[in-house]
Amino acid sequence: MLKALAIFLLASMRRRRRTPATVRENYDAERGRLLARVAEIDWQTYIFGPDERDFVLIDGVVRDGHLPEARQCLLCRLEQIVASVPAASTIVEFGSGDGRNLLYLKRLFPTHRMVGFELSPVSVDAARAAARRFGLDISFHVANVCEPMTELGKLKDVSLTFSVHALEQMPRIYTAAVRNMVAASRDIVAMLEPVPELMPWTFRGMVSRVRIVALDRLRGLAGEMRSHAASGAWRLETCRATGFGDNPLNETCEIVLKRLR
Q1: Residues of the chain predicted below pLDDT 50
Q2: Alpha helices per DSSP H over the chain
Q3: pTM for the full model?
Q4: Is CATH 3.40.50.150 the right assignment for the domain spanning 2-259?
Q5: Where are the domains of the chain?
Q6: What does residue 180 show for φ and ψ, rounded to 5 degrees?
Protein backbone atom coordinates (compact mmCIF):
# COMPACT_ATOMS: atom_id res chain seq x y z
CA MET A 1 0.00 0.00 0.00
CA LEU A 2 2.76 2.43 0.94
CA LYS A 3 4.64 1.62 -2.27
CA ALA A 4 1.52 2.30 -4.36
CA LEU A 5 0.99 5.56 -2.50
CA ALA A 6 4.58 6.67 -3.13
CA ILE A 7 4.25 5.90 -6.86
CA PHE A 8 1.00 7.89 -7.02
CA LEU A 9 2.52 10.90 -5.28
CA LEU A 10 5.64 10.91 -7.45
CA ALA A 11 3.52 10.71 -10.60
CA SER A 12 1.28 13.52 -9.34
CA MET A 13 4.25 15.80 -8.66
CA ARG A 14 5.22 15.63 -12.34
CA ARG A 15 1.91 17.17 -13.40
CA ARG A 16 1.59 20.75 -14.59
CA ARG A 17 1.07 23.46 -12.05
CA ARG A 18 -2.59 24.25 -11.63
CA THR A 19 -3.60 27.44 -13.47
CA PRO A 20 -6.95 28.88 -14.62
CA ALA A 21 -6.14 27.65 -18.14
CA THR A 22 -5.47 24.05 -17.08
CA VAL A 23 -8.51 23.98 -14.79
CA ARG A 24 -10.74 25.34 -17.56
CA GLU A 25 -9.35 22.80 -20.02
CA ASN A 26 -10.02 19.87 -17.69
CA TYR A 27 -13.55 20.93 -16.80
CA ASP A 28 -14.51 21.84 -20.36
CA ALA A 29 -13.70 18.28 -21.39
CA GLU A 30 -15.48 16.66 -18.43
CA ARG A 31 -18.57 18.85 -18.60
CA GLY A 32 -18.78 18.49 -22.37
CA ARG A 33 -19.59 14.83 -21.82
CA LEU A 34 -22.17 15.82 -19.21
CA LEU A 35 -23.75 18.43 -21.50
CA ALA A 36 -24.34 15.79 -24.15
CA ARG A 37 -26.37 13.72 -21.65
CA VAL A 38 -28.29 16.36 -19.66
CA ALA A 39 -31.60 15.58 -21.35
CA GLU A 40 -31.34 11.93 -20.26
CA ILE A 41 -30.27 12.39 -16.62
CA ASP A 42 -32.85 12.22 -13.83
CA TRP A 43 -32.87 14.63 -10.87
CA GLN A 44 -31.40 12.20 -8.34
CA THR A 45 -28.43 11.32 -10.54
CA TYR A 46 -27.72 14.91 -11.58
CA ILE A 47 -27.76 16.25 -8.01
CA PHE A 48 -26.21 13.34 -6.11
CA GLY A 49 -24.21 11.56 -8.81
CA PRO A 50 -24.42 7.91 -9.87
CA ASP A 51 -25.24 5.42 -7.15
CA GLU A 52 -21.80 3.79 -7.16
CA ARG A 53 -19.99 2.10 -4.29
CA ASP A 54 -16.58 3.31 -3.19
CA PHE A 55 -14.67 4.18 -0.05
CA VAL A 56 -16.23 7.28 1.49
CA LEU A 57 -15.71 9.27 4.67
CA ILE A 58 -18.80 9.49 6.91
CA ASP A 59 -18.72 10.74 10.52
CA GLY A 60 -14.93 10.64 10.42
CA VAL A 61 -14.86 6.94 9.52
CA VAL A 62 -13.63 5.52 6.21
CA ARG A 63 -16.01 2.85 4.98
CA ASP A 64 -17.23 1.11 1.88
CA GLY A 65 -20.37 3.00 0.97
CA HIS A 66 -22.28 4.80 -1.74
CA LEU A 67 -20.93 8.05 -3.16
CA PRO A 68 -24.30 9.85 -2.83
CA GLU A 69 -24.10 9.32 0.96
CA ALA A 70 -21.18 11.72 1.25
CA ARG A 71 -22.82 14.09 -1.19
CA GLN A 72 -25.94 14.11 0.98
CA CYS A 73 -23.86 15.11 4.02
CA LEU A 74 -22.45 18.08 2.13
CA LEU A 75 -25.83 19.22 0.79
CA CYS A 76 -27.46 18.94 4.21
CA ARG A 77 -24.85 21.26 5.68
CA LEU A 78 -25.20 23.68 2.76
CA GLU A 79 -28.97 23.61 3.23
CA GLN A 80 -28.56 24.56 6.91
CA ILE A 81 -26.37 27.53 6.00
CA VAL A 82 -28.83 28.81 3.39
CA ALA A 83 -31.72 28.40 5.84
CA SER A 84 -30.04 30.94 8.14
CA VAL A 85 -30.25 33.87 5.68
CA PRO A 86 -33.32 36.07 5.08
CA ALA A 87 -35.96 34.93 2.61
CA ALA A 88 -35.97 36.39 -0.90
CA SER A 89 -32.31 37.33 -0.74
CA THR A 90 -29.57 36.54 -3.27
CA ILE A 91 -27.32 33.50 -2.91
CA VAL A 92 -24.12 33.43 -4.99
CA GLU A 93 -21.93 30.39 -5.61
CA PHE A 94 -18.31 30.98 -6.63
CA GLY A 95 -17.20 28.14 -8.89
CA SER A 96 -20.68 26.76 -9.54
CA GLY A 97 -19.50 24.00 -11.88
CA ASP A 98 -22.36 22.00 -13.37
CA GLY A 99 -24.85 23.92 -11.21
CA ARG A 100 -26.06 21.01 -9.10
CA ASN A 101 -25.59 22.76 -5.75
CA LEU A 102 -27.72 25.72 -6.81
CA LEU A 103 -30.31 23.46 -8.46
CA TYR A 104 -30.72 21.57 -5.18
CA LEU A 105 -30.98 24.79 -3.17
CA LYS A 106 -33.41 26.51 -5.55
CA ARG A 107 -35.87 23.64 -5.27
CA LEU A 108 -35.73 23.91 -1.47
CA PHE A 109 -35.69 27.72 -1.29
CA PRO A 110 -37.71 28.96 -4.29
CA THR A 111 -37.94 32.58 -3.07
CA HIS A 112 -34.16 33.04 -3.05
CA ARG A 113 -32.41 34.34 -6.15
CA MET A 114 -29.62 31.93 -7.08
CA VAL A 115 -26.58 33.04 -9.08
CA GLY A 116 -23.56 30.98 -10.10
CA PHE A 117 -20.17 32.10 -11.44
CA GLU A 118 -17.99 29.51 -13.15
CA LEU A 119 -14.69 29.56 -15.07
CA SER A 120 -15.56 26.81 -17.56
CA PRO A 121 -17.93 27.95 -20.36
CA VAL A 122 -18.96 24.36 -21.08
CA SER A 123 -19.85 23.88 -17.40
CA VAL A 124 -22.05 26.98 -17.57
CA ASP A 125 -23.77 25.58 -20.67
CA ALA A 126 -24.42 22.31 -18.79
CA ALA A 127 -25.74 24.15 -15.72
CA ARG A 128 -28.09 26.26 -17.84
CA ALA A 129 -29.32 23.18 -19.70
CA ALA A 130 -29.99 21.40 -16.39
CA ALA A 131 -31.85 24.42 -14.99
CA ARG A 132 -34.10 24.40 -18.06
CA ARG A 133 -34.61 20.64 -17.84
CA PHE A 134 -35.71 20.80 -14.21
CA GLY A 135 -37.66 24.05 -14.56
CA LEU A 136 -35.59 26.16 -12.16
CA ASP A 137 -34.85 29.87 -12.57
CA ILE A 138 -31.12 30.27 -11.83
CA SER A 139 -28.58 32.64 -13.40
CA PHE A 140 -25.24 31.14 -14.42
CA HIS A 141 -22.37 33.27 -15.71
CA VAL A 142 -18.89 32.60 -17.11
CA ALA A 143 -16.35 34.38 -14.90
CA ASN A 144 -12.91 34.05 -13.35
CA VAL A 145 -13.77 34.63 -9.69
CA CYS A 146 -10.14 35.49 -8.97
CA GLU A 147 -10.38 38.64 -11.06
CA PRO A 148 -12.49 41.84 -10.71
CA MET A 149 -16.12 40.86 -11.33
CA THR A 150 -18.34 43.60 -12.74
CA GLU A 151 -21.38 41.30 -12.57
CA LEU A 152 -21.14 41.22 -8.77
CA GLY A 153 -21.81 44.94 -8.57
CA LYS A 154 -25.12 44.46 -10.37
CA LEU A 155 -26.49 42.03 -7.80
CA LYS A 156 -28.75 43.24 -5.00
CA ASP A 157 -29.41 41.87 -1.50
CA VAL A 158 -26.60 39.29 -1.53
CA SER A 159 -26.89 37.56 1.84
CA LEU A 160 -24.59 34.61 1.19
CA THR A 161 -21.59 33.87 -0.97
CA PHE A 162 -20.24 30.34 -0.88
CA SER A 163 -17.95 27.84 -2.57
CA VAL A 164 -17.97 24.03 -2.63
CA HIS A 165 -14.75 22.28 -3.64
CA ALA A 166 -13.98 25.13 -6.02
CA LEU A 167 -11.31 27.19 -4.28
CA GLU A 168 -9.22 24.02 -4.03
CA GLN A 169 -8.57 24.46 -7.76
CA MET A 170 -7.02 27.94 -7.21
CA PRO A 171 -3.96 27.30 -5.03
CA ARG A 172 -2.06 30.55 -5.71
CA ILE A 173 -4.84 32.97 -6.55
CA TYR A 174 -7.72 32.00 -4.23
CA THR A 175 -7.19 35.03 -1.97
CA ALA A 176 -8.63 37.25 -4.72
CA ALA A 177 -11.74 35.04 -4.85
CA VAL A 178 -12.09 35.29 -1.08
CA ARG A 179 -11.90 39.09 -1.28
CA ASN A 180 -14.64 39.09 -3.92
CA MET A 181 -16.81 36.85 -1.75
CA VAL A 182 -16.29 38.98 1.35
CA ALA A 183 -16.97 42.23 -0.51
CA ALA A 184 -20.17 40.93 -2.11
CA SER A 185 -21.94 39.43 0.92
CA ARG A 186 -23.76 41.44 3.54
CA ASP A 187 -24.29 38.51 5.94
CA ILE A 188 -22.40 35.23 5.45
CA VAL A 189 -19.40 33.86 3.57
CA ALA A 190 -19.14 30.07 3.59
CA MET A 191 -16.54 27.68 2.21
CA LEU A 192 -16.96 23.92 2.05
CA GLU A 193 -13.50 23.01 0.83
CA PRO A 194 -10.66 20.55 1.53
CA VAL A 195 -8.44 22.56 3.93
CA PRO A 196 -5.29 20.60 4.84
CA GLU A 197 -4.48 22.66 7.94
CA LEU A 198 -7.83 21.62 9.45
CA MET A 199 -7.50 17.90 8.73
CA PRO A 200 -6.74 15.52 11.63
CA TRP A 201 -3.22 14.45 12.54
CA THR A 202 -3.95 10.82 11.76
CA PHE A 203 -2.40 8.64 9.08
CA ARG A 204 -5.29 9.54 6.78
CA GLY A 205 -4.90 13.23 7.56
CA MET A 206 -1.15 13.24 6.95
CA VAL A 207 -1.50 11.37 3.65
CA SER A 208 -4.23 13.84 2.68
CA ARG A 209 -1.84 16.75 3.29
CA VAL A 210 0.86 15.17 1.12
CA ARG A 211 -1.69 14.44 -1.59
CA ILE A 212 -2.82 18.07 -1.65
CA VAL A 213 0.76 19.25 -2.16
CA ALA A 214 1.35 16.61 -4.85
CA LEU A 215 -1.80 17.60 -6.76
CA ASP A 216 -1.09 21.33 -6.39
CA ARG A 217 -4.28 22.06 -4.48
CA LEU A 218 -5.36 24.79 -2.08
CA ARG A 219 -3.44 25.55 1.11
CA GLY A 220 -3.73 28.37 3.66
CA LEU A 221 -7.47 29.06 3.48
CA ALA A 222 -8.00 28.86 7.25
CA GLY A 223 -5.37 31.54 7.89
CA GLU A 224 -6.82 33.75 5.16
CA MET A 225 -10.30 33.56 6.67
CA ARG A 226 -8.97 34.23 10.17
CA SER A 227 -7.31 37.39 8.83
CA HIS A 228 -10.67 38.63 7.55
CA ALA A 229 -12.21 37.91 10.95
CA ALA A 230 -9.39 39.85 12.61
CA SER A 231 -10.36 42.94 10.62
CA GLY A 232 -13.24 43.47 13.02
CA ALA A 233 -16.04 43.38 10.45
CA TRP A 234 -16.57 39.61 10.58
CA ARG A 235 -16.82 36.81 13.14
CA LEU A 236 -15.31 33.41 12.40
CA GLU A 237 -18.38 31.30 13.08
CA THR A 238 -17.04 27.89 12.04
CA CYS A 239 -13.58 26.56 11.16
CA ARG A 240 -13.45 22.78 11.28
CA ALA A 241 -13.10 19.48 9.47
CA THR A 242 -16.57 18.02 8.88
CA GLY A 243 -15.78 14.30 8.95
CA PHE A 244 -17.29 13.62 5.54
CA GLY A 245 -16.02 13.37 1.97
CA ASP A 246 -16.63 11.35 -1.16
CA ASN A 247 -12.87 10.75 -1.13
CA PRO A 248 -11.42 9.89 2.30
CA LEU A 249 -8.20 11.72 1.32
CA ASN A 250 -10.11 14.88 0.36
CA GLU A 251 -12.18 15.60 3.46
CA THR A 252 -14.57 18.53 3.24
CA CYS A 253 -13.86 21.25 5.78
CA GLU A 254 -16.17 24.12 6.70
CA ILE A 255 -15.24 27.76 7.25
CA VAL A 256 -18.00 30.30 7.84
CA LEU A 257 -17.72 34.05 8.38
CA LYS A 258 -20.66 36.09 9.70
CA ARG A 259 -20.70 39.85 9.40
CA LEU A 260 -20.84 41.77 12.65
CA ARG A 261 -23.61 44.32 13.04
Answers
A1: 1
A2: 2-13, 20-35, 43-48, 67-83, 100-108, 121-133, 174-184, 203-214, 221-229
A3: 0.93
A4: yes
A5: 2-259
A6: -60, -40
